[in-house]
Amino acid sequence: MPPKPKKILSLLRLRQINNAVFLRNNKAIMNMLRRVEPWVTFGTPNRKTISDLIYKRGCGKVNGSRITLASNFIIKDNLEKHGITCVEDLINEIITCGPAFKQANNFLWPFKLTSPIRGFRVKRRSYLNHGVFGSRENYINELVRRML
């Protein structure tokens, strides 16, 4: 893998295979995703997908260690100063890309997903050419559900 895309994946916190993160949809992020498109798939998740990810695979960063989001006390202790006191507030902040999105997203550890049920189709083609990598837009929800 060339060093430039490797650095971009590191900046996006995608250091392992089958990891998932939330990102803002802006020009800088889209340019970065365009550079690493052969190695990632991306799209716009809906509310159900975001809440499933956080409830089933959500872990928080507490003092540099990975802690499962088992109760609202973990979120309240770390994000209360940003107005986020429970899991639903965290989900809402991620969905709306509110003022504390950066802190909420940084608190969430990258999601570790499994390989999708029924596998990937052709890995060397883009999604538009019946493959797996590249922009999926709203069809990312189906892939994430298979990987939960």
Shape verdict: globular
Classify the beta-strand content into a percent band: 15-25%
Mean pLDDT: 86
Give the radius of gyration.
16 Å
Largest sheet: 3 strands, parallel
Alpha-beta classification: alpha/beta
Which series of helices and strands comes N to C?
HEHEHEEHHHEEEH
Name its key features.
3-stranded parallel sheet, two-stranded antiparallel sheet, alpha/beta, 148 residues
Task: Describe the protein's architecture and organization.
- The protein has helices spanning 3-11, 27-35, 47-57, 72-79, 87-96, 101-107, 140-147; strands spanning 19-20, 41-43, 59-62, 65-68, 111-112, 122-126, 131-137.
- It is α/β, with parallel strands linked by helices and 148 residues long.
- The strands form 3 sheets. A 3-stranded parallel β-sheet has the order 2-7-6, with no helix packed on it.
- Helix 3 (47-57) crosses helix 5 (87-96).
Question: What's the quick description here?
Answer:
The chain has about 150 residues and is an alpha/beta fold. The chain is built from 7 helices and 7 strands, in the order H-E-H-E-H-E-E-H-H-H-E-E-E-H. The chain has a 3-stranded parallel β-sheet, with no helix packed on it.
What's the topology here?
Layout: H1 3-11, E1 19-20, H2 27-35, E2 41-43, H3 47-57, E3 59-62, E4 65-68, H4 72-79, H5 87-96, H6 101-107, E5 111-112, E6 122-126, E7 131-137, H7 140-147
Parallel strand pairs: 2-7, 6-7
Antiparallel strand pairs: 1-5, 3-4
Helix pairs in contact: 3-5
